[in-house]
Amino acid sequence: MEPEDPVTTLDVEDTDDKDETDDMALLLDDAVEYSLSRGKKRGGGRSRLAHPVAKRP
Fold first, then answer.
1. What ranges does the record list as Basic residues composition bias (predicted)?
2. Residue 23 DSSP one-character state
3. Which of 3, 7, 41, 48 sits at 20 to 30 Å (Cα–Cα) from 18?
4. pTM score, two decimals?
5. Could you report the per-residue pLDDT of 13-56, keeping only the tens digit for each?
6. Is 13 helix (H, G, I), strand (E, B) or coil?
7. With contact defined as beta carbons under 8 Å apart, do 11 and 5 qualify?
8. Cβ proximity of 49 and 55 under 8 Å
9. Residue 56: per-residue pLDDT
10. % residues pLDDT > 70 (the chain)
């Protein structure tokens, strides 16, 4: 009976962690899609910022 108690506790903790991980994964997917769509509309963020700096005398 001793091995069953820790296993049950770990299963509950793992389930909670997986739920949080799934939520974070969904948030990351939304953030990636948003940043990609923004980059396409604006022509990319880094190159746009680096361009004026290169033109300075």
1. 38-57
2. H
3. 3
4. 0.28
5. 555 555 566 777 777 787 777 766 665 555 545 555 555 665 55
6. helix
7. no
8. no
9. 55
10. 21
